[in-house]
Design goal:
mainly alpha, Serine Threonine Protein Phosphatase 5, Tetratricopeptide repeat, 3 domains, 2 strands
Length: 303
């Protein structure tokens, strides 16, 4: 019965497209997508949303399969159109940095740079207001800071990077916001040296394009292996409950994952025992100190 419904919906959606009834086609494909998500239907949804100039909706569906849209110039141009219509310039840069082909990557960079130049002429006053809000986010509480950070993502790359660099050295900026900026600089593959105030109140300088992503570190691989060895076949509930939290902690430790988690096997077993409320294994002082530091940081998100 479900399969017959999907076939009927697909037939109706294709007929609506043939008749150029774009809104009807979009509604039918959305109903079909709720029954079964797949790339073919996703592509129809993205294209129809763009045709109807519903760019927020197009971006919502695009993000479900975004890496599937990075292999041809037509798809990449569509990705850039959608993100820039929504003024999400920094997220767009992060996305196109995932392109593996050098020729297509260069094309994407040039196309996005042109869109940003056009926007600077049209949205000059808007960008000026966003820059002011982003620059002075340190005077607010965490919730307002994070909102201002999101505003900063709607600036072109050059303006965003210039302000973000100053925020990385501002002790009034929340640790969580600085962590988020560091992760973004990694995704943006910033090539020049960047100085930043880290969680230990020390200033460091790194070239982010040369750094290993946190989840690609040897420490992260050991943690993942230990987690699945301990829980994979025996306790999927604990695994599901812990996995995202552990990923978050590894990402937050960037770019010092190895210094924060020096004993990844025991650290992982410690996390499992904490989650289950069992007796804790012996873990070295450094790793416990950082574990508690991140507990306190993440607690702020819920406050």
């Amino acid at each position: 019965m479900e399969e017959n419904k999907q076939d009927l919906l697909l037939l109706q959606a294709q007929q609506a497209v043939d008749e150029r009834a774009w809104s009807q086609a979009l509604a039918l494909y959305e109903e079909l997508y709720q029954l079964e998500q797949n790339l073919a239907v996703n592509q129809q949804l993205v294209n129809l949303a763009v045709r109807l100039e519903q760019f927020q909706l197009a971006q919502q569906y695009l993000l479900d399969y975004v890496e599937k849209y990075l292999s041809t110039s037509d798809d990449v141009d569509n990705v850039i159109l959608i993100f820039t219509k929504n003024q999400n310039y920094i997220i767009c840069h992060e996305v196109i940095n995932k392109i593996t082909g050098p020729t297509l990557y260069q094309h994407a960079q040039q196309e996005l740079a042109l869109k940003e130049d056009e926007a600077r002429l049209i949205l000059q006053a808007t960008f000026k207001a966003r820059m002011r809000e982003f620059k002075y986010l340190g005077i607010h509480d965490f919730a307002a800071q994070y909102h201002s950070y999101q505003t900063g993502l709607q600036l072109p790359l050059r303006e965003h990077i210039a302000i973000a660099k100053t925020l990385l050295l501002d002790e009034d900026v929340s640790d969580l916001v600085r962590i988020t900026i560091l992760a973004s600089f990694m995704a943006l593959k910033i090539k020049e040296d960047v100085s930043f105030l880290w969680l230990d109140n020390e200033i460091y300088t790194r070239k982010f394009s040369d750094l290993v992503p946190p989840l690609a570190t040897e420490t992260a691989f050991i943690i993942q292996d230990t987690l699945y060895d301990e829980l994979g076949d025996t306790d999927p509930v604990t695994l599901a409950g812990l996995e995202q939290n552990i990923i978050l902690r590894i990402k937050a430790a960037f770019p010092f994952v190895e210094q924060v988690i020096t004993d990844p096997v025991t650290w992982t077993k410690y996390q499992i025992a904490r989650f289950r409320g069992e007796e804790l294994p012996d873990l070295n002082e450094n790793d416990i100190r950082w574990l508690l530091k991140f507990d306190a940081l993440f607690a702020k998100i819920g406050n």
